[in-house]
């Protein structure tokens, strides 16, 4: 239902998105049967395609060229996919979006090679765009994302984290790629520097809100809705915004420590999730997400009216209330 | 050019790669990434032979070194359990090194090399997967696979900058060195993709095929200084314990 709602927001750009979807499939049409299966497994598991839609919508504010837009959109979605394959190795995850992960279906090594393959295809796609600024931006984005993940490993199972640490972490983890999706879409369409700046900031603020909601859903959703165990972030040693609010609560601390050392039972996991849900931490985190969404919307409001602006505003509103 | 100058050039290059890919947390927890001196030698072969070597070429060569570092560290990720901090950092450091290679090529910018190198990285990962899953057939398939994995990116670099004549020698020599080390059970070549598919008989045949191929290529390589030809001999003969 939620997915249908999101798709309806994309309605005016369905033709462009389905073209990109075909390009995505073609770009990973590997000669190696295992790599092909692994890549398709990931592609067909779906996803919100937020990055491609942000590229498409941002490019509408300049001289739109489907050819360039598709190359950027395919590249960004492939980079996102490649990072998911490697993240599943790091987190030892067997399921993602309800589907078996590449590492679970085969093994870590195949997941490493499949991720590296998908990443290489991302560069093949964008390599055809001969604009230095595009490549420099994407390269810096990729390195920052990676740096963010390395820092996340440093913070793993550490309770002495601040809100600033968390915000810096999600900026690199999620907001940067969404920000770059908007910026690159605008850049390849030769939008004005002012428009590029607004779209870049829109992507950043929307990305921050998106990740906070993601972290909330990890606690408020069921295992079935998530396609993985609820509370996975804590089980993997990551403190997120809702849990930062109650990390020093004496009743919550035993749950936290047992999550981090891997001794939490299934029953305790249920009790822990209920405790967080009733603590008021979810509402506080939602307020922070709403604050970022307001900032995102403010950036777009001054852009010229049209279908793209309307869609960006609707997607921003959806991101704040989504249930998946 | 003497051996000392060659070694100095290789060490300088390795130092430049190390500096480019350095990441403080990775360096603290995993240490320096060992870089293959034989690969460095063949990558730099045109420069060692006196070809013009601009700063653009040098940056591209460092980018190739970053790709090799990424391959090496990803090959070391445990096949079943990568949940320790060290293993997690191996996954991420490989991604980081890949990002460095892209940043270096973007800084030039060399769009053609970005695309060609990415195509080759993709093919190398397909090849490693097929070797691991034992989907590679016949001795010629195995030889070509090993050559691609060992020298594919060096080949792209040489082709891009008009050094095709060096590319053939580099590919054959690096392939030969791999098989010779395999025959000697050298642990340094046991990577993530090394599977049971490569039998002892295949190793012997591959050594024989690649030895004669390298002999022919060196005989025709009038462009190469006699000293470098000797060096290439030297890199294989101590391993083989007989002259090529």
From TrEMBL, chain A:
GO molecular function: metal ion binding; prenyltransferase activity
Record has Magnesium as a keyword: yes
Similarity comment: Belongs to the FPP/GGPP synthase family.
Species this chain originates from: Sporosarcina luteola
Protein name as it appears in the record: Heptaprenyl diphosphate synthase component II
Xref: SUPFAM superfamilies: Terpenoid synthases
A matching Pfam family: polyprenyl_synt
UniProt keyword list: Magnesium, Metal-binding, Transferase
Cofactor: Mg(2+)
Annotated coiled-coil segments of the chain: none
GO biological process terms held by the UniProt record: isoprenoid biosynthetic process
UniProtKB/TrEMBL annotation, chain B:
Highest taxon above the source species: Bacteria
A GO biological process held by the record: menaquinone biosynthetic process
InterPro entries referenced in this protein's UniProt entry, alphabetically: HEPPP_synth_su1
Protein name (database record): Heptaprenyl diphosphate synthase
Species, as recorded: Sporosarcina luteola
């Amino acid at each position: 239902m939620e997915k249908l709602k999101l798709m309806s927001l994309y309605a005016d750009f369905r033709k462009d998105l389905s073209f990109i979807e075909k390009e995505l499939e073609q770009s990973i049409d590997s000669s190696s049967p295992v790599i092909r299966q692994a890549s398709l497994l990931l592609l067909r598991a779906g996803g919100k395609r937020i990055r491609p839609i942000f590229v498409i919508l941002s490019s509408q504010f300049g001289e739109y060229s489907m050819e360039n837009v598709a190359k950027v959109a395919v590249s960004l979605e492939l980079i996102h996919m490649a990072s998911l394959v490697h993240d599943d190795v790091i987190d030892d995850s067997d399921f993602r979006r309800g589907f078996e992960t590449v590492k679970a279906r085969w093994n870590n090594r195949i997941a490493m090679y499949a991720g590296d393959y998908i990443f290489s295809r991302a560069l093949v796609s964008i390599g055809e765009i001969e604009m230095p600024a595009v490549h420099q931006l994407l390269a810096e984005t990729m390195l920052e994302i990676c740096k963010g993940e390395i820092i996340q490993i440093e913070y793993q199972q550490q309770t002495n984290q601040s809100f600033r640490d968390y915000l810096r972490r999600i900026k690199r983890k999620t907001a940067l790629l969404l920000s770059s999706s908007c910026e690159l879409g605008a850049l390849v369409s030769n939008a004005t520097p002012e428009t590029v700046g607004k779209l870049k900031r829109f992507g950043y603020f929307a990305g921050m809100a998106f990740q906070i909601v993601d972290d909330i859903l990890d606690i408020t959703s069921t295992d079935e809705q998530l396609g993985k165990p609820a509370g996975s972030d804590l089980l993997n040693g990551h403190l997120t915004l809702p849990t930062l609010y109650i990390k020093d609560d004496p009743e919550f601390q035993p749950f936290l420590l047992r999550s981090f050392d891997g001794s939490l039972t299934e029953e305790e996991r249920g009790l822990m999730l209920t405790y967080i849900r009733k603590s008021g931490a979810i509402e506080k985190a939602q307020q922070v997400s709403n604050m970022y969404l307001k900032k995102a919307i403010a950036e777009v409001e001054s852009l010229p009216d049209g279908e793209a602006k309307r869609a960006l505003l609707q997607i921003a509103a959806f991101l704040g209330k989504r249930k998946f | 050019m003497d051996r000392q100058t060659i070694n100095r050039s290789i060490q300088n290059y390795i130092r430049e790669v190390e500096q480019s890919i350095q990441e403080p947390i990775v360096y603290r927890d995993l240490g320096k990434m060992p870089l293959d001196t034989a690969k460095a030698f063949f990558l730099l072969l045109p420069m060692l032979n006196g070809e013009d070597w601009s700063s653009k070429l040098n940056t591209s060569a460092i980018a190739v070194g970053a790709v090799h570092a990424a391959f090496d560290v990803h090959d070391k990720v445990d096949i079943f359990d990568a949940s320790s901090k060290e293993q997690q950092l191996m996954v991420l450091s490989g991604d980081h090194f890949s990002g460095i290679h892209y940043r270096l090529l973007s800084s030039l910018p060399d769009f053609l090399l970005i695309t060609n190198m990415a195509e080759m990285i993709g093919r190398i990962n397909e090849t490693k997967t097929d070797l691991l899953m034992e989907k590679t057939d016949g001795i010629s398939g195995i030889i070509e696979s090993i050559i691609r994995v060992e020298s594919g990116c060096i080949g792209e670099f040489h082709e891009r900058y008009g050094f095709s004549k060096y590319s053939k020698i580099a590919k054959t020599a690096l392939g030969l060195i791999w098989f010779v080390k395999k025959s000697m059970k050298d642990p340094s070549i046991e990577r993530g993709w090394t599977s049971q598919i490569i039998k002892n008989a295949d190793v012997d045949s591959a050594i024989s095929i690649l030895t004669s191929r390298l002999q022919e290529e060196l005989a025709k390589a009038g462009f190469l200084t006699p000293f470098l030809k000797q060096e290439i001999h030297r890199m294989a003969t101590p391993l083989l314990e007989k002259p090529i």
